[in-house]
Design a protein that fits this description.
Blueprint (H helix, E strand, L loop, with lengths): L2 E3 L6 H8 L25 E5 L10 H15 L4 E4 L7 H13 L2 E6 L5 H10 L5 E4 L9 E6 L1 H15 L4 E8 L2 H17 L4 E8 L10 H13 L4 E5 L3 H11 L3 E6 L15 E7 L1 H13 L6 E5 L6 E3 L4 H4 L2 H15 L10
Helix pairs in contact: 1-3, 2-9, 3-4, 5-6, 5-11, 7-8
Length: about 350
């Protein structure tokens, strides 16, 4: 059975208290790892530590949860989850991952690049535990699996779709935080728009700058940014902003404009159902399968390690086609399909920086 701990306060002490109840089942573990750095009990199952916004973000974290949930059902394993704290430090992340590993969970997966420094520290202390990190290749070790995606390729397709759907010739991109990962989304989207309509205009807005990562967690910021771009003439808005992206979708939909979702097929997400008719498509990242595949590899005794990349060629990224308006737009679909084929055939090289 899975348990989830939602931590309401900040700090190592409070995190430790809350996470002491996070791991599920298994034999009783001691308060510290064994001398060889392995977990001190038999594996409790798989665990994930969520990124900013936590479970329920209708996007990145929920996609990771879907993979964990599938593993729990299909592989008959126990699972654990841990939520982030607002304004948390690296020490908080280290504490969270340490507790999950100490309880015997294997693998332990950090959802998002922000976990990189913490995973580097904790993985060295638990060499017999596999650690997964999504969207990062900066930390490597024999027991670390780097689960990464060609976000720029999926975003290129979104740019093609946006250019085809736009009537004003102006579209918008909203990034949660101005970091290299999100710039991949911007770069691909802008290139796709411009390759489809060289005269199109792309408005770009980032919600926060590091070390402030609040741009991934505040729907009001996304909503305000989208309204600003709509006032500037944009009639299609693509937001790569985690939970803040839901605010952008709301603003676009209530203004009668198109929204493009991210990470998961947001047309089918319950929390956005009232806006679904205006969610033209979503750039999907198969975070769910990446999480599931890593968990299965550990269970099978052949744990993944190193870079595990998911691109268009493996359907690791792509565009959702749930909206009937998308399905019925033959010109748009033809343009997207051609772009996809050309990227896979390496006739188009998608930029990773704007």
């Amino acid at each position: 059975m899975r348990r989830i701990t939602r931590i309401a306060t900040v700090g190592i002490a409070s995190a430790a208290l809350a996470l002491s109840a996070t791991a599920c089942g298994g034999k009783k573990s001691s308060d510290s790892p064994s001398s060889d750095g392995s977990a001190s009990s038999s594996a409790a199952g798989a665990a994930i530590a969520y990124d900013i916004g936590g479970r329920g973000d209708q996007s990145f974290n929920d996609a990771a949860f879907a993979g964990l949930e599938k593993a729990e059902k299909d592989l008959k394993i126990k699972t654990a989850e841990a939520e982030p704290t607002e304004g948390e430090s690296e020490a908080d992340k280290v504490q969270r991952l340490t507790e999950l590993a100490r309880k015997g969970n294997n693998p332990v997966i950090g959802v998002g690049f922000a976990y990189a420094p913490a995973i580097k520290k904790v993985a060295a202390k638990f060499p017999k535990t596999t650690f997964g990190i999504i969207d990062d290749t900066s930390v490597t070790d024999k027991n670390i699996a780097n689960l990464v995606f060609n976000e720029e390729q999926g975003s290129y397709l979104a740019g093609v779709a946006a250019a085809k759907a736009s009537k004003s010739g102006t579209v918008g991109f909203i990034g949660g935080v101005e970091v290299p990962l999100i710039k991949k989304f911007e770069a691909g989207f802008t290139q796709g728009v411009k390759d489809t309509n060289p005269n199109a205009k792309v408005l770009t807005k980032y919600l926060s700058q590091p070390p402030d990562f609040g741009g991934f967690a505040k729907p009001d910021l996304g909503k305000a940014a989208a309204k600003g771009q709509i006032d500037g003439g944009a009639d299609v808005i693509y937001a790569a902003a985690g939970l803040a992206g839901s605010g952008a979708i709301e603003a676009a939909a209530t203004s009668g404009k198109w929204a493009i979702g991210v990470d998961s097929d947001q047309y089918n997400q319950a929390g956005l159902s009232k806006y679904k008719d205006k969610i033209l498509t979503s750039v999907t990242k198969d975070v769910s399968d990446a999480v599931y595949n890593l968990i299965k590899s550990v269970k099978d005794g052949k744990p993944e390690s190193g870079e595990v990349r998911y691109g268009l060629d493996k359907d690791g990224v792509g565009l959702a086609d749930s909206n009937p308006e998308y399905k019925n737009n033959a010109d748009l679909i033809a343009a997207v399909d051609k772009a996809k084929a050309d990227i896979i055939a390496k006739k188009i090289t998608v930029k990773t920086t704007p």
